[in-house]
Amino acid sequence: MRTTTVLFSDPESVEPRDMTINVEEPVLGEIHTGVGNLRGWAVADAGVDKIEIWIDDAYAFDVPYGGARGDVGAAFPDIAESGNSGFSMAYSYSSLTPGTHTLKAVGYDSLIGLTTERETEFSVVKFDEDFISDPNAINLDSAICSLTGDEIVLTDARVSEDMVDMTMKWRTAEQGFEIIEIRQSGMPVAMNSPRLAANALAATSEEEVFRVVLEEPVDGEIHSGVGNLRGWAVASDGIEKIQIYIDGGFAFETPYGGERSDVGAVFPDVPNSRDSGFSLAFTYSNLSAGSHVIEAVAYTRGGAEERSSSVFEVVKFSENFISDPNAVNLDNAACITSGDELKISNALVAGQTYQLKLDWRMAEQGFEIVEIR
Question: Residues 307-343: pLDDT tens digits?
Fold first, then answer.
């Protein structure tokens, strides 16, 4: 078996049966927190058999592969299945210790097991709770908000009875603001691994089990930018595939088989329940502003089907994707805080002035833009 390390290269430089692999999130050199995307893509003339994820030089898990990537397909039109070359999952960065970490994606081709790897380095900041599940845990009534460049600084924010200072920064990859610094009494605050709310998992006494749960987008909430589309599915006779429908029309199949130890603990007698997750990075801003429905349809190997859907709202800027890293400027903006939300007036985004509102979101363990005017 031959192992090579390949950085992103021009399609013309790819030799036959070589593999090109790219890690898009976590972003090299950036700071991450809460629950975010772990994603990228890989192509090979011989096909891609699997993608392993290694964290800090230790094997962590296999990530589901085969997500729709029209952009990669356009770059590699002569490689079979290049249009379905994405790998992605929702990842709890807060399961790592604070500080610097490495993540390596190792791809295996389908012919002889040839491997190619791509590594990225990033940092983690965290709160002091495993997972902030209390919907009233965030209170900004007494917080002071200041703005500069593309950053939001909150001083004296109350988080689960602790007073913390935090900094959020605009992230191109997410098309939103991510927490990049958390301090309590002048020191970084620790946070451990978040788990999903227990009411998302309900065991059944039936002998035959077949369930599918769409966790994001969250039913009844507002989404923007690039976020997660994720959930899980289990069946006694195995899951064949997961299809995603948007507003009643078929959109794509989502990769299935992500590590979900929480689901495995609830359904220990269902085969492969520990690897029952489906997830991909989804650009909500590609949808029109307003109400939408996403439905996940799971099919068993025996031909049965089960559905789970979510009705949600989309808010967006005038551009579907803001690629300029300097497009967001808050120097002349003002902000006020209340409850678990903050409002920003006169924010300059891609040359236009907007009024924004951000709300704390439990699923992401961070703040999401929920209003753009």
Answer: 999 999 999 999 999 999 999 999 999 999 999 999 9
Residue 130 within any structural domain of the chain: no
Sequence-distant (≥ 6) Cβ neighbours of residue 3 within 8 angstroms: 115, 116, 117
Q: What are phi and psi of 137, to 5 degrees?
A: -70, -25
Tell me the three state secondary structure of residue 275: helix
Please list, residue by residue across 281-317, b when 16 or more beta carbons sit within 10 angstroms of its beta carbon and e when fewer do: bbebbebeeeebebbbbbbbeeeeebebebebbbbbb
For 48-82, the three-class secondary structure string (H helix, E strand, C coil) is: EEEEEEEECCEEEEEECEEECCHHHHHHCCCCCCH
Domain range spanning residue 153?
Answer: 138-192+317-372
Residues 180 and 173: beta-carbon distance below 8 Å: no
Give the pLDDT confidence score for residue 169 in this predicted structure: 97
Q: Give Cα separations from 334 to 77, 166, 330, 341, 355 (angstroms).
A: 47, 17, 8, 14, 10
Same domain, 272 and 307: yes
Query: How many C-beta atoms surround the C-beta of residue 337 within 10 A?
Result: 19
**Element of type H or E holding 138:** strand 138-139
Residues in CB range of 267: below 8 A, 6 or more apart = 203, 209, 234, 273, 276
| Neighbour-count burial of 2, counting CB atoms closer than 10 A to its CB (0-12 exposed, 13-18 middle, 19+ buried) | exposed
Of 358, 361, 314, 365, the residue nearest 335 (C-alpha): 358
CB count within 10 Å of CB 162 equals: 14
What global pTM score does this model have? 0.81
Q: Assess whether 47 and 120 both reside in one domain.
A: yes
Q: How long is the chain?
A: 373
